[in-house]
Design a protein that fits this description.
The chain contains two helices and six strands. It is of the alpha+beta class. Strands 1, 2, 3, 4, 5 and 6 form a six-stranded mixed beta sheet that branches. It is rod-shaped, with a radius of gyration of 30 Å. It starts with 12 loop residues before the first helix and ends with a helix. The C terminus is likely disordered.
């Protein structure tokens, strides 16, 4: 009995209200789940690209000889991206006198399409190096150097 003396009961609106609330809750949960999966995929891509970018920088930094100016690029397997390595002489800026050593600048960047547009983070460093003016293949040098390092372990 209720306070007015009548019998307490329920109407059909109560179960429908609970049902609508349950449906709304399910929509919210599944909406958040799909958003989480998109964020998770973006995060996995970012981690893979960041690892690749650091690996490329490490491979290039292990080299002791460089051309005075060079640019190489490639596409990593398994990722929809492109990497670029740019080497330029900082000191001296002009390599016309052909010095045997110089301070070089190395830029490594990866370009990939993110959810909101093209992404292009860049790593850069400077290092002293011996300069090679003839018959130097910067494209092949990091591969040779890295395979020699891993074979000796």
């Amino acid at each position: 009995m209720n306070a007015s003396g009548g019998l307490a009961g329920f109407t059909l609106m109560s179960p429908r209200g609970y049902g609508d609330s349950g449906i709304g809750l399910c929509r919210s949960v599944f909406g958040l789940l799909s958003e989480f999966m998109l964020i998770y995929e973006s995060w996995k891509t970012f981690i893979a690209i960041n690892s690749l970018r650091e690996d490329m920088m490490n491979r290039v930094q292990f080299l002791s000889t460089f051309p005075p100016e060079a640019k190489i690029s490639g596409r990593p397997s398994g990722l929809d991206a492109e990497w670029n390595v740019t080497v330029s002489s900082m000191v001296p800026r002009d390599a016309s006198e052909k010095p045997i050593a110089a301070i070089i600048k190395i830029d490594v960047d990866l370009v990939w399409k993110g959810r909101s547009g093209q992404r292009k983070p860049t790593l850069e460093t400077v290092k002293p190096a011996t300069i090679a003016y003839e018959n130097y293949d910067l494209q092949e040098a990091p591969r040779k150097n890295f395979s020699a390092l891993t074979a000796s372990r």
